[in-house]
Design goal:
Order of helices and strands: HHEEEEHHEEEEEEEEEE
Radius of gyration: 17 Å
CATH superfamily: Creatinase/methionine aminopeptidase superfamily
Shape: globular
CATH architecture: Alpha-Beta Complex
Number of helices: 4
Strand content: 15-25%
Structural class: alpha+beta
Oligomer: single chain
CATH class: Alpha Beta
Length: 249
């Protein structure tokens, strides 16, 4: 992946703020009785109104504007008409284009209330792992392993299953670019990141083991042991001496 130009960074910064606003609005819709189909329909309307492009539609045959994955489904879930139940763990993953550049972000929210301390550990631990991964970026020359190691340490600290077959990635000119950003690794190893590069950091974790499987729909990625899972993601710009989160309001 080559570094983005100043003009491209400006576009991604503006698009990221729009994406973040939409994702926050969609998160507020996650309630018992609501459905993924309703949220996805609302997403498409908001995306078009904001002047963004629903780049996920048709990508490798995917048929929707976003991914919505519930409970033991961790990513790539196809939105459907099944209504959320009280306490469901819902992952919203939104990938959008703005002026030919792509941004990617995800959040995990609970439908209604869920006072299970393990669910809180899962969600809070995965969210914090994203923060730790971003904090590990010290600017130009940061290694992918620095990010991966920081994410893994936080997930391990919270005794969560670290998903090994799914990774973060470069993003911007396309939905998935090099390099891959695993959620486990060794600091100081892996490709060095240059200022101007944009990457999607996305910790994925479970309350059980790490193996995954693909559901019958050919898209939804499930935890093989059917444990609850969580997913958080930001598109991040590598700066000369640190980083900038592009997908926040």
């Amino acid at each position: 992946m080559k570094p983005k130009t100043e003009a491209e960074i400006k576009i991604m910064r503006a698009g990221g703020k729009l994406l973040a606003g939409i994702l926050n609005e969609l998160a507020e819709m996650v309630k018992p009785g609501a459905s993924g189909r309703e949220i996805s329909d609302a997403a498409l309307e908001k995306v078009k109104k904001a002047g963004l492009q629903p780049v996920l539609i048709g990508f490798q045959g995917y048929s929707d504007v976003m991914c919505i994955s519930v409970n033991d489904a961790i990513v790539h879930g196809l939105p459907n008409k099944t209504r959320f139940s009280e306490g469901d763990v819902v992952k919203l993953d939104l990938t959008l284009g703005y002026k030919s550049l792509v941004l990617d972000s995800a959040i995990t929210v609970v439908a209604g209330q869920n006072d299970n301390p393990d669910v809180k550990r899962l969600i809070n631990g995965t969210r914090m792992a994203l923060s730790k991964g971003i904090d590990a970026i010290k600017g130009d020359g940061t290694h992918v392993g620095d990010i991966s190691s920081a994410v893994q340490k936080e997930l391990d600290k919270n005794k969560l299953g670290v998903i090994r077959d799914l990774v973060g990635h470069g993003v911007g000119y396309g939905i998935h670019e090099d390099p891959n950003i695993p959620n486990y690794g060794v600091a100081g190893t892996g490709p060095a990141l240059m200022a101007g590069m944009t990457i999607a950091i996305e910790p994925m974790a479970s309350l059980g083991d790490w193996p995954i499987e693909i559901a019958r729909d050919g898209w939804t990625v499930m935890m093989a042991d059917h444990s609850l899972s969580a997913h958080f993601e930001h598109t991040v710009l590598i700066t000369e001496d640190g980083s900038e989160i592009l997908t926040q309001a």
